[in-house]
Amino acid sequence: IKHNVLKETISKALWKKLENTYASKLLTNLCFKMKLYQLKMAMRGDFHDQINKFSQLVSQLLNANDKLSDEEQVLLLLASLPMSFKALVQMLLVGISTLNLDEVAATLRENERMIRTENVDDEHNAIAVVESERGRNHSRRHDDPRGRSKSQLHPQ
Description:
The chain is mostly helical. It contains 8 helices and no strands. Helix 3 packs antiparallel against helix 4. The longest helix is centred in the C-terminal third of the chain and has 34 residues, at 101-134.
């Protein structure tokens, strides 16, 4: 660092040189873009966490005066989703002429809500089946000696 700024004698020029060298907006923007392009949701990850991470990175880029078109944001969001979303992503890309981030995010949230509702219904059905199987087995025949206790088989 010292060798890079050794020639500067005025503090404002020194600060400007340091800022240009080490606090480059271009570098900051590239780091945010790298994070955004590398963002991937885990296979069983939480969709709302994914949307929040995505929105945070986009906000950081926009705050750093970088520009991302709405269409580019939609494509990056869709690309960050796991393969389990593949059919929905394909339907969105084919079915929509213009990609609007708010509409796509709303569709994805609704899909996630529907899946969660189905999973809850499946869990309730599984619990009901287990509970009904726990009950007493009423299908035994009363004249079958295997179904009776020993005290009933051998009267005293």
